[in-house]
Write a structure and sequence with these properties.
single chain, three-stranded antiparallel β-sheet, 16 helices, 9% strand, DNA binding, DNA_brk_join_enz, DNA recombination, Tyrosine-type recombinase/integrase
Length: 428
């Protein structure tokens, strides 16, 4: 009789009564007061369908979330990087709490307590949001598949909602502090920091930078447009990703869109010098084995430099760190803030950072070569000013392991000298 609706109606004085089979398969529910027969029948049919769905959900709700995860993940049609991220969030955060819990036993209170625990362990609001979104999708699809009658409500909605709390929000760093961090790092690491601070590129995008996508001024071009330098963030392999086993692979940047990042003259010169010092490499920044840099290895150098510990081979400096607790992603915030300070048009800011805002702004506002030229001039001037204010000898910071200068900075940095360095690298 499965699938057959057993609901019926009966006359009850001047009105009609709806009768439907309950989930236990033995008793009937009823409701009277319908003026016409078809209304009563429609109500009875709907209630019986709901009762059967609830009974089916109850029979399978004993399946654990871990077992459902094993079925659910292979069915997702997502990019490899997204699947790896989901797996990482489940393994690190969700599985220890819910893997052995039956889906039907997970309540809204459980989810609220879980989210609160994540915040208590120091996860940033954005990280908590990512973890909870994976859990939300798991439970929503379980409900859609009939595993449970309905997914429990997610926290963060309603009368008890609080602010994000003391999470690690992004921040803009002072450029003098950024230069101080560079002075504590090895030359390649210092250059990566400057690239991020003056382009807004993400960590994975900086790690994936390739010589083939770097366009430097050519030796046979005169002043003007031929002096332009830029980097192409490729839409297919423009970022390095890490899976749950810390294996690195190349894939699309966040959002799946490529973009062109214009380079100010001093940065073009720095990258040109870096290529000269590391001739023959496909990637601009690698580890000792010639592979993309592992994020955990980078953090082992980045945190001491920010928090006040000098790196090997660097002279001891003040014990107080230039920017304790800073993250590499804060360099992206730093660049976005710098662009706003320099009054760079919003359209160019969005283009440079790889943002795609909704609405008419992105449809009717476009960038021009004049906008880009003005921005690069301002970034070059900001670099010269901050180096002068910091009082650091950047020439000593940006040198290769052999001791030869990679690029000459400071008060002597200018568009012509930087472009000349770039042409020499291209010619070589």
């Amino acid at each position: 009789m499965a699938g057959v609706v057993m609901a019926y109606v009966e006359r009850c004085g001047k009105v009609w009564r709806a009768r439907w089979l309950l989930a236990d398969g033995r008793r009937y529910g009823s409701r009277s007061g319908f003026a016409v027969k078809w209304e009563a029948k429609h109500f009875a049919d709907a209630r019986e369908v709901a009762e059967r769905a609830a009974a089916q959900a109850e029979s399978v709700s004993g399946v654990t979330l871990g077992a459902w995860w094993e079925r659910w993940l292979p069915a997702q049609d997502l990019a490899p990087a997204t699947l790896e991220n989901y797996a990482q969030q489940f393994r690190r955060h969700i599985a220890p709490r819910f893997a052995t819990v039956a889906i039907g036993q997970i309540t809204a209170l459980d989810l609220a307590g879980f989210a609160r625990g994540l915040r208590g362990r120091g996860l940033s609001p954005s990280s908590v949001s990512v973890v909870m979104s994976v859990l939300r999708d798991l439970l929503a699809d379980a409900a859609a598949d009939g595993m449970i009658a309905a997914a429990p409500a997610m926290p963060g909605r309603g009368r008890n909602r609080r602010g994000p709390g003391p999470g690690r929000a992004g921040r803009a760093l002072e450029l003098e502090a950024v230069l101080e961090v560079c002075a504590r790092l090895a030359p390649q690491d210092a250059l990566m920091v400057i690239v991020a601070a003056f382009t807004g590129m993400r960590w994975g995008e900086v790690c994936a930078m390739r010589c083939a996508f770097l366009h430097l001024p050519q030796a046979d071009t005169g002043p003007g447009e031929g002096d332009a330098a830029w980097y192409e963030v490729d839409a297919r392999i423009g970022a390095v990703h890490e899976d749950v086993h810390a294996r690195r692979f190349f894939g699309p940047p966040k959002g799946g869109h490529g973009r062109t990042v214009d380079l100010p003259p001093f940065l073009a010169a720095a990258l040109a010098g870096h290529i000269q010092a590391t001739a023959g490499r496909e990637l601009l920044f690698v580890n000792a084995r010639g592979e993309p840099i592992r994020h955990s290895d980078w953090l082992a150098r980045w945190h001491p430099a920010c928090d006040g510990v000098t790196g090997r081979g660097r002279p001891a400096r003040a014990r107080t760190g230039p920017c304790p607790g800073a993250r590499f992603h804060d360099l992206r915030h730093t660049h976005a803030t710098m662009l706003a300070e320099l009054a760079v048009p919003e359209a160019l800011r969005d283009e440079r950072l790889g943002h795609h805002p909704p609405g008419v702004r992105s449809l009717y506002t476009h960038t021009t070569s004049a906008m880009r030229a003005a921005m690069l001039s301002q970034l070059e001037r900001r670099w010269i000013q901050v180096v002068a204010r910091a009082g650091l000898d950047m020439e000593r910071v940006f040198v290769d392991r052999g001791g030869d200068a990679v690029a000459r900075y400071g008060s002597r940095s200018s568009g012509s000298s930087s472009a000349r360095c770039g042409r020499e690298a291209a010619a070589g």
